[in-house]
Amino acid sequence: MITGELKNKIDSLWEIFWTGGLTNPLDVIEQMTYLMFIHDLDEADDTRAKESAMLGLPYESLFSKEVKIGERAIEGSQLKWSVLRDFPAGRKYSIMQEWVFPFIKTLHGNKESAYSKYMADAIFKIPAPLMLDKIVTALDAIYAQMAQLQTSDVRGDVYEYLLDKLATAGVNGQFRTPRHIIRMMVDMMEPRADEVICDPACGTAGFLVAASEYLKEHRRQEVLFNRANKNHYMNDMFHGYDMDRTMLRIGAMNMMTHGVDNPFIEYRDSLSDQNPDREAYSLILANPPFKGSLDEDIVSTDLLKLCKTKKTELLFIALFLRMLKVGGRCACIVPDGVLFGSSTAHRAIRTELVENNRLEAVVSMPSGVFKPYAGVSTAVLIFTKTGHGGTDKVWFYDMQADGRSLDDKRSPIAENDIPDIVERFHHLNQEAGRKRTDKSFLVPRQEIADNGYDLSINKYKQTEYVPVTYPPTGEIMANLRSLETKIGQEMDALEALLSEQEH
């Protein structure tokens, strides 16, 4: 968990950008991401060099050779963060602008890689040497603080805190999905080493990063020490699409920083005909935008066949079904309206999930999960594409707490249902005996069908009312009289005491 001291350091860094004239939050995030990437590149290079030395393997540093930009050349070691940070402000600025930025653009020789595509038009926007000097010093202080915390996900927490600062969040449905919710969904899905994973509305690639971290934590031997699996992990496993090029750049660097060399991250309107993907992925993790309605003319016609609507949240579910392989799984966040909406399109998509595929789980989340961006109530849908049904019983869970307060501050609290959700989901065979008054329970497919395919938990959950008995009115009045008398006696005693002190 990010500490108050670390937050203050990040706030101070943000202030340096702000006072220096860089006031667009997306620009600030973008420039910070570049600099963090340059810092991490140096650190990762040193780590790989040490690991290779321990294993007795040859390793050539990224910075060992002379770097050429046009007709000019410079010693590669001067481009290392650990070296250039000690240069005077003017030299630091010129090297960063003239050498480091062009250098990181050429890291991937493959011009089709995500990194190459979205770094090609990256611009160094820090306007002055002194400002860069202050930023480098502030970043070093942040990294030093991160090192002291010694927690595996502190960098992710820092990045999430930066993303929290995006003032544009919430515009066009771009809500930042909290990292702990992302991780819950990934833990529930348990990605395998042979997965082909996609997020068709990836933003900063939070779901893809979390999936990559899960694989490194739980399938490290299988993924990283098998040549074929490692190649798949680095080049073919992760796919992300978005319509915001800044987000794509941040997403590509985010993935690379987390050890995925060549994720397939591409500019694409996933709902349009420009998305050719059909039965391509084994796992989809997504929080698609809920921005209301689209122009039907730009929506892929085969999506409209499944549910004729302009609502993006419904169209994305239809898209997931199209993009998944048979047997492929999906965990996605949807607004509550998807669960109980009465329109033809709402009923059509829910019927499709229940009758023609295997709907496995509905996790109802409290409305404060997406604060401060929005107070919208949401749920996690988990389903498997079969094309021929398979829904037997659907597992419902009523999440009451996610380890954060449900106000705008989202402060850490003790109450947290997430570990319980993951544990129960992985042992659904033990859920059969649970009553409808419990946090989780199973509902037969037929009962859902009889209720018009309504998937809202309140349709099936039973509330247990405990009768409260009160004493007779006369007894209550007598107690009040007694309290009143006692208070009067105490006041008399206090007055007497004060009178004695005055005299």
CATH H-level name of the largest domain... which superfamily? Vaccinia Virus protein VP39
How many structural domains can be distinguished in the coordinates? 2
Rounded mean pLDDT is 87
First-last Cα distance: 59 Å
**Morphology:** globular
Helix content: 40-55%
> Counting H and I runs of at least 4 residues, what is the number of helices?
19
> In what order do the strands lie side by side in the largest sheet?
5-4-3-6-7-9-8-10-13
Q: Ranges with pLDDT <50 over ≥5 residues?
A: 167-173
Describe this protein's structure.
- With 503 residues, this protein is an alpha/beta fold.
- It folds into 2 domains: 4-160, Ferritin (Up-down Bundle), CATH 1.20.1260; 168-459, Vaccinia Virus protein VP39 (Rossmann fold), CATH 3.40.50.150.
- Helices cover 47% and strands 14% of the residues.
- It is built from 19 helices and 13 strands.
- It has helices spanning 4-19, 25-55, 81-84, 89-105, 114-119, 129-149, 154-164, 179-189, 206-218, 220-224, 227-235, 245-257, 301-306, 312-323, 337-340, 344-355, 418-425, 445-450, 473-502; strands at residues 66-69, 72-75, 197-199, 238-242, 264-267, 281-286, 324-335, 358-365, 378-384, 393-398, 402-404, 412-416, 440-444.
- Strands 5-4-3-6-7-9-8-10-13 form a 9-stranded mixed β-sheet, sandwiched between helices.
- Helix 4 (89-105) packs across helix 6 (129-149).
- The relative contact order is 0.07.
- Residues 167-173 have low confidence and may be disordered.
